[in-house]
């Protein structure tokens, strides 16, 4: 066991935040309307481009009209802005996150976002451009992990499950860097989640969220050195709204469509490599 945990903290590039922020502004005909009482106006949803935005586009183009739903999809490339613009009313809803992330975000930012409907799970994976198997990681090797608390915990557990590091007894997916009992000489680098894929060549291995892996043209079933287990996985991604807007008829229509047989088939056909898996059902608040 090492006495000193070697951690190098990297500052995520500002470009991702700037890009996410730029996506906040929207023309007057596509701004959120839930606080204006107009339930016939378009429902504006903030989403990660892939796979969330892709799924929403399918709903918009193939299913929404039959339900009388007008849907506008606003893409964001970071994990901070979607909740902020949902909370301040710039958009009506968002689709990109799981419950542990939302709980932490609400607590740290004083926001009041609540989950509505579970839709999918994206297994977290370990990827590399420099090694062929996790056993190749040794003392001095560098591994990047997402720096937000919930995904960092998932990443550390994935490393521990595969023998790269050892966590303190009793610690699971809520792990923090201080919970690493033995790093075995591996240097863990924190990055904003959106930067783990673009900066994969800066490290020996990177733990990347499913949506960012897909966006970087990585195929989890083929390219991942290790994948998070999906059975009993608590990290389902869901449709979310600001508290008080759960009963908006437009939100209910979208929740129903996102759990439809058509969407299930779309996900299974498009993501045959297992990078995205349907996980339907009501989301726990």
From TrEMBL:
Signal peptide residue numbers: 1-23
| Keyword Lipoprotein set for record | yes
Pfam families tied to this protein: Lipoprotein_9 (PF03180)
Q: Write out the entry's keywords from A to Z.
A: Lipoprotein, Membrane, Palmitate, Signal
Q: How does it sit in the membrane?
A: Lipid-anchor
In the record, which residues receive a covalent lipid, type S-diacylglycerol cysteine?
Answer: 24
Subcellular locations according to the entry: Membrane
Q: Which GO terms describe its cellular component?
A: membrane
Q: Which family does it belong to?
A: Belongs to the nlpA lipoprotein family.
Q: What is this protein called?
A: Lipoprotein
Q: Which organism is it from?
A: Streptomyces glebosus
């Amino acid at each position: 066991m090492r006495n000193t945990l070697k951690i190098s903290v990297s500052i995520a590039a500002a470009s991702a935040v700037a890009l996410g922020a730029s996506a906040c502004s929207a023309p007057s005909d596509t701004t959120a309307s839930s606080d204006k009482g107009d339930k016939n106006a378009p429902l504006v949803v903030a989403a990660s481009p892939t796979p969330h935005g892709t799924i929403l586009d399918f709903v918009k183009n193939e299913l929404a009209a039959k339900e009388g739903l007008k849907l506008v999809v606003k893409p964001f490339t970071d994990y901070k802005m979607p909740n902020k613009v949902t909370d301040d009313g710039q958009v009506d809803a968002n689709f990109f996150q799981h419950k542990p992330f939302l709980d932490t975000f609400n607590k740290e930012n004083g926001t009041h976002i609540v989950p509505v409907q579970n839709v999918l799970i994206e297994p977290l994976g370990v990827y590399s451009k420099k090694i062929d198997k996790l056993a190749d990681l040794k003392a001095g090797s560098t591994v990047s992990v997402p720096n937000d608390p919930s995904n960092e915990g998932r990443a550390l557990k994935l490393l521990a499950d595969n023998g790269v590091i050892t966590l303190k007894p009793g610690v699971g997916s809520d792990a923090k860097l201080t919970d690493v009992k033995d790093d075995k000489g591996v240097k863990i680098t924190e990055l904003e989640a959106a930067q783990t894929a673009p900066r994969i060549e800066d490290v020996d291995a990177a733990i990347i969220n499913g949506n960012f892996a897909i966006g970087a043209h990585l195929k989890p079933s083929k390219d991942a050195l290790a994948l998070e287990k999906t059975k009993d996985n608590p990290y389902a991604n869901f449709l979310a709204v600001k508290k008080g807007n759960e009963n908006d008829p437009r939100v209910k229509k979208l929740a129903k469509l996102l759990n439809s047989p058509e969407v299930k088939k779309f996900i299974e056909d498009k993501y045959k490599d297992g990078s995205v898996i349907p996980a339907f059902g009501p989301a726990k608040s």
